[in-house]
Structure prediction request, 355 residues.
Amino acid sequence: MSEHNEHARHIVGPGVYLVILLALLVGTALTVWASYVDLGFWNPIIALAIATTKAMLVVLFFMHVWYSNKLTKLAIIAGVFMFLVLISMTLTDYISRAWGQW
Amino acid sequence: MPDNSVSAHGASERTEIAHEEHPAYLRHHFNSTAQQADAAGFAMWLFLLTEVMFFGGLFTAYLVYRNWYYPAFVVGSHQLNVVWGTTNTAVLIFSSFTMAMGVWCAQTRRRRGLVLSLTLTFILGLVFLGIKTVEYREKIEKHHVPGFHYSVQSFLDPQSDPEVYKEYHDKPLVPDMARHTELYFSLYFLMTGMHALHMIIGIGILGFMILRARAGAYTAGHETFVDNFGLYWHFIDIIWIYLFALLYLISRH
Prediction:
């Protein structure tokens, strides 16, 4: 661990940032286009999938998590996992209460 | 046994460093500047995770109520302008890019590049808030701000709102469901308002950073503040990415 800390920090250059910028703009165009196509049940799922892909790109490259140490990665994964547990437990409760009535 | 060797190693390292020259910004309770930067970055992430929980509560409320009062949330969402929303998403993505470039400039000690990047980020942040103001004003004019002056006219009689009607041809809602559009707008203002508050705080800090960067701060090896502010700014961008999808897009078709 202490050895790891001695390493010079990885510097992410403009090239990577430019590629991510373009990917995010393409993702935005794609999600706006997809929202106008009637896919019924799949519309929100696709919108959230694209949003999550964009968020992952921001976290991994703009926020340098791809290059960060294990402690930071683990803390983020634990935090997001905790959030997903909370939200899915809440939603299973609300969705199952009116089961069969929709 | 392993404990002893670790502490002995740590102690010798500490005495070694105490006698060495070190940058003025290295606090004495850290072994190295890299360790100090790692600790600061980790702490920033812990703060951002509390923010995830904070916004997560709002997102959960939105999903639960959308599930309950689906028709009201769909017509409420049709009141939002996708062109403004998309423009703002692009503005915020560009501002994240300029902020990332600012971090790179600080790391590679480019003072003018850093000032330029931070200034562009500052301006794009203001553009975002300007567009948000235009959107908020339209809601105020149409009495779609929750409260005493809230009006369900657009939802009881969609044809009275020709601009939205010609695009979506919404059917009138029964009064009970129409009332629940107020809930959609409550969540809309709460979520975008909290997001905007984070933007305002961020823009304030950016102003401070621009002044400091012009004086040569952050480009002499100690760029932790810029790094961590970058994390904050990108986090706000991520929140907007989800707000845009949930508030503007998923009820569009």
Remarks:
- Confidence is low (pLDDT under 50) at residues 1-8 of chain B.
- Chain B is about 75% helix and 0% strand.
- The longest helix of chain B spans residues 33-68.
